[in-house]
Design goal:
single chain; mainly alpha; 54% helix
Length: 91
Amino acid sequence: MATDLIELKNLGKTSVQWLNAVGIRDKETLEQIGSVEAYRKIKTRGFKVSKVLLYALEGALLDAHWNQLAPDLKAKLIKEAESNGQHQPEN
């Protein structure tokens, strides 16, 4: 059964509305798309978002408060989000 987005950590009414606006309506879809792609879709749609939304989406998937994410994970998320969909090879 699909989990309502509003039940996830870090996600409030506005972020859920943004997710719905880009076709993400449950946790399972968010998991399939991933936090970075969901963030990109929302940003591309023209909503004014900050990096905190990206952290919040990842935290929602991990069931953790966004502020508890490790700094290296946050940096990785930002790098992926700013890569314009280009895959960055790992070294």
